[in-house]
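#struct-help
A.M.: can someone run this one for me? Single chain, 153 residues.
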Amino acid sequence: MSYTEEVGEKLRRIRVDRGLSLQDVERESGGSWKAAVVGSYERGDRNISATRLLELAEFYGVTPADVLPGEPVYRQESGNGGIVIDLQQLESLGEQWSSVRRYLESIQVQRGDYNRQILSIRGEDLRALSVVHGGSPDDLIGELRGAGAILER
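D.P.: on it. Structure tokens below:
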């Protein structure tokens, strides 16, 4: 798959996660984003400039990094980084994770991020999340990794 196609696939996934059709994007953007143009970006038929990519990411309420190809980067807590959690996998882990799921939902509400598939957790949120779960950040990362709920390179 080409770079342009990978960007397009991510754009499509983000749009669909937000429950938007191509026509919805055109309508909600006041015509700034034409359905045919966004569709051609998504199919990889047309290259998107860096400026337009930034603008479309902002329209969708995501960071530009969320649209670029590549896997989410896992960074150790000692680097004051965060992790990327697979929310669907976490949902399947049962009741013992309910407090963690509630905390993650509050982060989604705060950020206005409702994609329901993955969530990037910053270092400071990771520390708070580990307290909610009853352990250290390293313990939490280990448990999530063992359960297959962390996306990492």
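A.M.: thanks! The longest strand covers residues 83-86.
D.P.: also worth noting: The first helix runs from residue 3 to 17.
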